[in-house]
Each structure stands twice: as structure tokens, then as C-alpha cells.
Specification:
Blueprint (H helix, E strand, L loop, with lengths): L1 H29 L7 H11 L4 H11 L3 H9 L3 E3 L5 H5 L1 H4 L5 E3 L8 H20 L16 E3 L8 H10 L5 E3 L8 H10 L5 E3 L20 E3 L7 H10 L5 E3 L8 H10 L5 E3 L11 H6 L6 E3 L8 H10 L2 E2 L1
Protein name: Putative leucine-rich repeat domain, L domain-containing protein
Organism: Medicago truncatula
């Protein structure tokens, strides 16, 4: 019985200490002097946000608590997809979300994308001028170095002047998606590749009427190039094989002017190539596919022009090489 009383006494004492500790903590938090830096709140927000949709909805509620929390969550937003944007909204985009690294403006049918880019440039320049009091060259752009990814899919009105401004504003782009932006010339594409030297992924699907044959400079960091449903031909592939030797993935679906001669150029020169898509490339004949694959040991995936049945021996060799054929 004595042991039982002692144990109860100790438990009661522990509860008293815990209660006093909690009371003191509550008093500290309730005082006006209590302050938690934004960096600590950012850690809390990052902990709550693990990428699940439910957590994203919770963070929206969290950001509605106060302007301080809204500012914190805005600083932690790195990508954004905008639907039905207005110039006023877009011009202040980087002021509200200063750490954006990715923007998606798919199906933006505004009359002039150039106006949107100009409004961003003007907004950033004004902010810069307020901080530095003056800008040496009023015509120069204040760059936005943190943006790494830009999607401008189905923007049929984007032209070379917009592309040139994109390159000036976002010189550190690593991914540029211009699918269905078919009013861009090859000179505009060349300008981006020269100015944005860090580009690794370029998507020009259904965007080119020209053939990119005028490229006379190297693009050593380019790893993924999508030329599906463009007018590229063997001459284009020869140029690409000389200028883009670091390619890992080349997508040529629906390139009807390509033959095995052009494909062979790429496979010979691009020593790291891991995937090539030849779907609907009707001039690449089935009987040379196996030899093309075996000529590039690094190849891990090939999409054939049409359904082609490899022989048992060829399938065995493909398996040894680790190449998937689909």
C-alpha cells in the first residue's frame, strides 16, 4: 500500500509541474513581446505542405489568417498556373511571388503577349529604380534570374519580339515550352538559345514552319528537344547532331520528311542519347531500325514509326542492351 501511495504522490507532483509549465508558456505567448521571425513561420509552413492537395487547401486557410501569413506563403510559392490573366495581374506577379521559378500561361489568347512582357519589365524596373534611385540605362531590362521554367502553350500570337523579350527578362531559363506557338521564326529560336545558355528542355511541338538549318552555334546544355509535327528534315538532324551533342531525348513524332539517313547522323554524334521518338516518321524504314538501335549503345527507348515486329534474335539483343521498343 505504501508503494502505491508513493507512486500516486509522484504522479500528482508531476502533473502540478506540468500544469505550471503550461501556464508559463501560455503567459509568454500571450505577451506583446513574444515574436516569432518569418523564417520560423516558413519552416512551419514547409512542414505542413508536403505536396498533397488537402495540405494545399489548408495553407490557403493559413494564408487568410493575416497579411503576415499571406506574405510568407507567397514567398514559398515557386510555380503558378494562370488562367484568363489580366495585364494588371501579370505585371505584379513577381512582386507578389518573388521566388517564382515556373510559370504556365497555357491558352493565353490575349491580343498582345508583348504587352504582358512589357508590363512585367516596367514593373520590375520601377521597383528597381525605387531601391537604387537610378538606372544607368533606362532602356535596359532588369532581369528576373530565378525563373527557370516557362510554358506558353497554344499562344498563337507570340512572335519574335516577344521571344527576344523573354530571353532578356529570363536569361536563366532551363525549360521553355512553345507548343503550338507557330508564329515564331527560326531566328527567334536561335536568339533564345544563344541568350539563355542554360536551356536544357526546349519544346517546339507544332511550332515551326522552318527547318532550323541555319543553326551555326553549339547548345551544349540542351538535353531534351521536342520537334514533333514540324517541318524538320535530314538536313535539320545533321545540324542538330553537330550543335546539340549533349541530347538525351529527341522527339520527332510526325516529322514526315525525316529518313534513316538523318536519324543515323543523330545516333552517331549524340553519344549520350537515351530516347528517340520516330512515331509516324513514315520514311524511316523498318528494316534498318535494329541496326540504328545497336549503333547507339546508350539508347534506352525507341518509339518506332509503325508497329514493327522484331525477330527473336533482335529482341534478345535489345534486351541485353536494355532498350525498350514501343
Amino acid at each position: 500500500m505504501k508503494r502505491k501511495k508513493t507512486r500516486n504522490f509522484l504522479n500528482f507532483k508531476q502533473r502540478q509541474q506540468l500544469s505550471r509549465s503550461q501556464t508559463k508558456s501560455a503567459e509568454v505567448i500571450g505577451t506583446p513581446e513574444f515574436y516569432l521571425p518569418d523564417e520560423c513561420w516558413e519552416c512551419v509552413v514547409k512542414f505542413l505542405n508536403d505536396g498533397h492537395d488537402n495540405n494545399s487547401r489548408s495553407l490557403k486557410s493559413f494564408s487568410a489568417v493575416s497579411k503576415q501569413f499571406l506574405s510568407i506563403t507567397n514567398h514559398l510559392r515557386f510555380s503558378i498556373t494562370i488562367k484568363e490573366p489580366t495585364h494588371r495581374c501579370l505585371s505584379r506577379l513577381f512582386q507578389r511571388f518573388p521566388n517564382l521559378t515556373s510559370i504556365c500561361l497555357t491558352h493565353y489568347y490575349d491580343n498582345d503577349t508583348f504587352c504582358w512582357l512589357s508590363s512585367i519589365a516596367s514593373s520590375i524596373k520601377m521597383k528597381y529604380t525605387k531601391k537604387k534611385n537610378s538606372v544607368d540605362n533606362s532602356n535596359s531590362f532588369v532581369v528576373i534570374p530565378q525563373l527557370k521554367s516557362l510554358h506558353l502553350i497554344s499562344n498563337s500570337r507570340i512572335r519574335d519580339e516577344s521571344i527576344e523579350m523573354i530571353a532578356a527578362l529570363f536569361p536563366n531559363l532551363q525549360l521553355l515550352n512553345l507548343t503550338y506557338c507557330y508564329n515564331i521564326s527560326e531566328e527567334g529560336i536561335f536568339h533564345v538559345l544563344k541568350t539563355c545558355s542554360d536551356i536544357r528542355h526546349l519544346n517546339l511541338r507544332r511550332s515551326l514552319g522552318k527547318k532550323l538549318c541555319g543553326m551555326n552555334f553549339e547548345v551544349p546544355k540542351l538535353e531534351v528537344l521536342n520537334l514533333s509535327y514540324t517541318n524538320v528534315n535530314n538536313e535539320t538532324l545533321c545540324v542538330i547532331s553537330m550543335c546539340c551533342r549533349g541530347l538525351l531525348q529527341l522527339l520527332l513524332e510526325g516529322c514526315f520528311n525525316v529518313t534513316e539517313k538523318g536519324v543515323k547522323h543523330v545516333l552517331e554524334k549524340c553519344a549520350q542519347l537515351r530516347e528517340i521518338n520516330l512515331k509516324m516518321c513514315g520514311q524511316v524504314h523498318d528494316d534498318v531500325l535494329a541496326s540504328l538501335i545497336f549503333s547507339r549503345p546508350s539508347l534506352r527507348k525507341l518509339s518506332t514509326p509503325y508497329d514493327y515486329q522484331f525477330s527473336d534474335r533482335e529482341m534478345e539483343l535489345l534486351s541485353l542492351q536494355g532498350c525498350i521498343v514501343c
